[in-house]
Amino acid sequence: MNYKLLILGVILGFSFCYTEWGTDQSAFIFEIEARFFEDLKDNISAFAHPLILAGLLGQIGLVSCIFIPKPKKWLLLGSLILLSVIVFFFLLAGILSGNYRIILSTFPFWILSFLLLKVKSKIN
Q1: Is residue 24 part of a domain?
Q2: Can you give the pTM of this predicted structure?
Q3: Interval 58-116: pLDDT, tens
Q4: What HEC string does the chain produce?
């Protein structure tokens, strides 16, 4: 299997992680990102938050792995680790709240990340 397609799958899996908070409020990561970039001109300091930086740098790293002919292993692993921290917090929130939708939304990311690491280790 082409590992670059798996990288794209990991990015999509990350984007479709789901969360709920408060009363009747929920969103996927891609929706949160869209809102963030819409409000960026009003609140540039939001970039300083570690989770925002981790998600942004992780996605930029994975996208660059798609376009670089032979990306460095540290770039791929570092990007996956940054995104995994965020997805882990989503998973933890889902487990602690007993919300199966949040828990299940993290599975594609974890499965595709595992497959990506397995395929990439066979290539190297």
Answers
A1: no
A2: 0.89
A3: 999 999 999 998 888 899 999 999 999 999 999 999 999 999 999 999 999 999 999 99
A4: CCHHHHHHHHHHHHHCCEEEECCCEEEEHHHHHHHHHHCCCCCHHHHHCHHHHHHHHHHHHHHHHHHCCCCCHHHHHHHHHHHHHHHHHHHHHHHHHCCHHHHHHHHHHHHHHHHHHHHHHHHC
Place of tokens 């990439």: 120
Number of folded domains that form the chain: 1
Longest dimension (CA), the chain: 48
Q: Which two tokens stand for residue 25?
A: 């409020």
The parent domain of residue 99 ranges over 3-17+29-123
Provide the token pair at 60: 């930029």
CA angle, 31 then 36 then 37, to 5°: 100
Question: With left for phi above 0 and alpha for psi between -120 and 50, is residue 54 left, alpha or beta?
Answer: alpha
Question: How many CA within 13 A on the CB side of residue 23?
Answer: 0
